[in-house]
């Protein structure tokens, strides 16, 4: 028997390869699961796996190795020891003490780092490792894996100019298991049908690779006492009770439609986002009815006013005018462009109104560059009693803030005005955001209740997926 065929058979016989029903990191259910963590219990099998990876590594040019945590770490370690190649490690959870490093080891900027992975499905685990490496100035050109499940991972990496090199492909495994009698022809046909019909979309946009998003593994329960603002804590209590991190953006122009949306989607959401200044017939009665629905369905109201003026003007905009925002909104947001005066004015209402700072925006060509984002983070830390989170494209800081991402849609796309849409899995599980803001995907649906239910489940599943570490 050919050496690779013998390896596949041994992997199956030692239950590294299993057939059944399994949930993957991508959130989909798969009829086949490859658990290469088992190999550490069989030294001779582990050595064979590493030998196969080494055959590919010899043809590549690189300075250091990095194994994707956790399963590929033993593979990378053996490759490092046996070939005398330095290795670095990515921390899956960055500590808030000590050196606080995301990448451990000795390295220099512009060194070429070869990523070692056990298997690849969508490529999300590789991309989670790629971001911190790139942020430290390392160059990544190639990824070597034992197994490519052939479900889009190679194409997804190619979008980031990363070449995938695999020892085995899923077709190799299926054919070998059929020829060896481990699986019947009928089983293999069913598995082929599954793989042909279940590609997995890209999991991380190029912007996330450049900034190296953090992903907090702490649950909402664990983060609840870390939030200093009362509204932020109340929001997390609602999120946990309803198991919903879905926010609906009710960007409509009439009060009737606004109130209708609030009533229809209210049971599924944690927050309703409004734009009072685009409602053509706004009155105090509208805000009163909105507050009633918020209490009835147990959600908060977020007025997307984007305050950006001097403190005195902001205070008047918040409390006066025809909208009287402070009387009915639980959450407001602000730009930092005018300096701390804006936040100082908003912080005076911190007892009953929480503040989000705009750190990043999902519109194409946004000027919220990394330096701007960092300034927003620094300013938030100065006003933590009032500021409890950010409008951002993912997690940009510590777990004592919450991260809200707009432009979420089950199908990645864009519009003619530059809005960029990203799916819930990417936003929450990969980029580390906490709350998904969905607009047109729900409010333009013919059945808003059903659409809201679908999005609520997708967003909550992405949060649960983020807490786990399965492939």
UniProtKB/TrEMBL annotation:
InterPro entries: Aldolase_TIM (IPR013785), OMPdecase (IPR014732), OMPdecase_AS (IPR018089), OMPdeCOase_dom (IPR001754), OPRT (IPR023031), Or_phspho_trans_dom (IPR004467), PRTase-like (IPR029057), PRTase_dom (IPR000836). CDD domains: OMP_decarboxylase_like, PRTases_typeI. Substrate binds at residues 251, 273, 362, 419, 439-440. Residues 245-455 form the Orotidine 5'-phosphate decarboxylase domain. GO terms for molecular function: orotate phosphoribosyltransferase activity; orotidine-5'-phosphate decarboxylase activity. Its EC number is 2.4.2.10, 4.1.1.23. It holds the Pfam family OMPdecase. One of its GO terms (biological process) is 'de novo' UMP biosynthetic process. The keyword Cell cycle does not apply. HAMAP family: PyrE (MF_01208). This is Uridine 5'-monophosphate synthase.
């Amino acid at each position: 028997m050919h050496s690779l065929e013998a390896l596949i058979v041994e992997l199956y016989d030692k239950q590294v390869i299993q057939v059944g029903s399994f949930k993957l990191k991508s959130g989909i259910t798969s009829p086949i699961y490859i658990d290469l963590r088992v190999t550490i219990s069989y030294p001779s099998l582990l050595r064979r796996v590493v030998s196969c990876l080494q055959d590919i590594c010899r043809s590549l040019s690189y300075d250091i190795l990095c194994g994707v945590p956790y399963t590929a770490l033993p593979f990378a370690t053996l490759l490092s020891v046996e070939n005398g190649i330095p290795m670095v490690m990515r921390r899956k959870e960055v500590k808030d003490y000590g050196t606080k490093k995301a990448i451990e080891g000795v390295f220099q900027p512009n060194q070429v780092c070869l990523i070692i992975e056990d298997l690849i499905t969508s490529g999300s685990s590789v991309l989670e490792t790629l971001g911190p490496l790139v942020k430290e100035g390392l160059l990544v050109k190639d990824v070597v894996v034992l197994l490519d499940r052939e479900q889009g991972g190679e194409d997804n990496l190619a979008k980031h100019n990363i070449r995938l090199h695999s020892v085995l492909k899923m077709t190799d495994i299926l054919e070998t298991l059929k020829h060896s009698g481990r699986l019947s022809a009928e089983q293999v046909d069913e598995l082929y049908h599954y793989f042909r019909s279940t590609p997995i979309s890209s999991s991380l946009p190029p912007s996330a690779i450049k900034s190296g998003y953090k992903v907090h593994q702490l649950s909402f329960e664990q983060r609840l006492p870390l939030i200093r603002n009362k509204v932020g804590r109340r929001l997390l209590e609602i999120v946990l009770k309803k198991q919903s991190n879905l926010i609906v953006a009710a960007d409509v122009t009439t009060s009737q439609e606004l109130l209708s949306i609030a009533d229809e989607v209210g049971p599924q959401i944690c927050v309703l986002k409004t734009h009072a200044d685009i409602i053509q017939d706004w009155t105090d009665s509208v805000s009163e009815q909105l507050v009633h629905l918020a209490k009835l369905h147990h959600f908060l109201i977020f007025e997307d006013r984007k305050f950006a003026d001097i403190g005195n003007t902001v205070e008047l905009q918040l409390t006066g005018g025809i909208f009287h925002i402070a009387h009915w909104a639980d959450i407001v947001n602000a730009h930092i462009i005018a300096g701390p005066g804006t936040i100082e004015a908003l912080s005076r209402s911190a007892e009953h109104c929480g503040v989000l700072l705009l750190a990043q925006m999902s519109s194409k060509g946004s000027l919220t560059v990394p330096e701007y984002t960092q300034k927003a983070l620094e300013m938030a830390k100065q006003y933590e009693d009032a500021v409890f989170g950010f409008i951002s494209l993912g997690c940009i800081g510590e777990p004592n803030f919450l991260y809200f991402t707009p432009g979420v849609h089950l199908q990645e796309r864009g519009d003619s005005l530059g809005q960029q849409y990203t799916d819930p899995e990417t936003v929450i599980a990969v980029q580390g955001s906490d709350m998904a803001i969905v607009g047109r995907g729900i409010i333009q649906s013919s059945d808003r209740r059903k659409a809201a239910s679908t999005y609520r489940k997708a967003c909550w599943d992405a949060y649960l997926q983020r807490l786990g570490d399965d492939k």
